[in-house]
Amino acid sequence: MTFFRCAALAAALALPFTAGAADRLSLTDAFQRAIAADPSLPAAGARVDAAVAGERQSGASPNPSLGLEVENFAGSGALNGFDEAETTLSYEQQIELGGKRDARMGLARREREAAEARVTVTRLNLLEEVQIAYGEALAADAEVRLAEERLEVARFLAREVARRIASARDPEFAGERAKSQVASAELALEQARLNASAALQRLGSYWAGGGSYRLDMRFFEATDVPAAAGEAAASADLTVLEAERAASAARVSVERSKSVADPTLSLGVRHFGRNDDVAVVVGGSIPLTIFDDNRGNVDRAAAEQRAADLDLASYRVARDREILRLRSELAIAAAELRQIDAKIIPAAERAAKLVLDGFSRGAFTYLDVTEAQRALNDERARRIAVLRAFHASRASLDRLLGTYSNIASAE
């Protein structure tokens, strides 16, 4: 009966964790907590506010000038007083030509769009970090349950060995070996619990929370690969690069518009002190683009536009390559997990059960039992390691595909 109680306990520990469902912290909950607490997101929002203000300012026209001139006074002879003074009050306005205002507004609009897209990128980067930390915490929790099972089996074997020693079926050193295995399992469990606590603390650090919550182990067991249809949608990174490319093109238009000289027109009223007459004065001026036609700035903006085009094309190729690599890794890991669950672990469990049953009847030695248990524990630890790597790659793939863009873009 002792063996069957131990086997039942092992089977129970192998089941997915379901207790405390009401206290579970889902991945979505972790995302929302992290977004609410992260200080980099308000900073990104402030940059959007700055871009919006810049867009509003870009539509402003040049301010007019109001001038006052007094001449022909405080001189010599007939001009030594103010009787011959001439006073002119003028109004001047610079006229923008070459589409400067439209080009400036177009650039500001593109910069605002890029700033808005960067907010989503900042959030997606945060969500990727949280998703990786969540997967690490789940893996650490699974290692705790594996260590608990290992300790329970080691204690059961120690009791069995003690019973066999009492009946003179095993030597004394077998008991010492069993005690050593129990001590080793106790240390492994303590280390696993410390690692799990640290993993929860790392996860909670994204929202300054503690580690007093349970995670959703069902997420850890899920090994589905994101559908390829997600690749058709433009990711946030592509949106940023496309906005930056559009901004680069808008800068070319701005620099080209600066090559066109802007005239200044003036209209004034002149007062003649000699006879108190008044006359209208009209004038104008325009810069001569002899030494500076802004050609260098135009060429620089055009080169930056070409660079933005090439950056976008390069990113598309690199992104597709990385998505292909990650999807292949996930498919391989999922296939490995299926084999572990369907064949390797069941075979190791059957072997461990047969050896343990035979040990209870005196057919096998303690060394045979520990070897069978070690093989089973190694395969279960291998399963956890594969799941840990799977979820790390899954987080990177979700980031590239923008799987959680709905959360990242939500206000």
Can you offer a commentary on this structure?
This protein is an alpha+beta fold. It has one domain (2-61, 96-259, 294-408): Outer membrane efflux proteins (OEP) (Up-down Bundle). It has helices spanning 2-14, 27-37, 40-58, 100-166, 172-204, 217-221, 236-258, 295-361, 366-401, 405-408; strands spanning 24-25, 65-71, 86-94, 214-215, 264-272, 277-285. Strands 2-3-5-6 form a four-stranded antiparallel sheet, with no helix packed on it. The chain is rod-shaped, with a radius of gyration of 38 Å. Residues 1-22 and 229-233 have low confidence and may be disordered.
CATH superfamily: Outer membrane efflux proteins (OEP)
Helix content: 55-70%
- Tally the helices: 10
Compute the number of strand runs: 6
Structural class: alpha+beta
Tell me about the largest β-sheet: 4 strands, antiparallel
Q: Could you say what the CATH topology is called?
A: Outer membrane efflux proteins (OEP)
Gross morphology is rod-shaped
The structural domain count equals: 1
Rg from Cα:
38 Å
